[in-house]
Design brief:
about 160 residues; alpha+beta; four-stranded mixed sheet; two-stranded antiparallel ribbon; 4 helices; about 20% helix; globular
Amino acid sequence: MSTTTETITELASSPPKEKGHRRTSSSVTGVWNINDLEKEGKELKIAKETQKLNWKLNTSPSTVDEKDALKKLLTDPPVKKIDLHFPLGLEVSARNLKGVTIKDALDAIHKQFKKKPDDELEDPMLAGFEWDKDESWTRLIVHQKKAGATPTKKKGKKGEE
């Protein structure tokens, strides 16, 4: 019994193993941490496509007409994480180690609004994002609007509508 006690005592007194450096292989070169951009004074540009999405906050991002826009990076230079701030105080974060895309931002917003019925949303449509470095370098302001543009009918192949 004394050998067990000695072993336990030795284990308890042995120095804890140092945790190794976190794996960075999932990071992509050219994708920034938003705080590093602020330190270096690099300005953010927001993808113009976000203003033309005509997307309702409580619907899935897959309902967007312009599916190709979802794949585009939300900001230039690309960032790993960005906070999206609503005028009433709500804030959500969009994250992607390969660079936050428009879809990542819409997914983060949708997660907050998916259970809200239409009549509870005063301004249910996404109007776009704004970056105001004077207010906060690390977040985008989300703009909403009452109604979306009327959907434009796309002409398909000959004879289809």
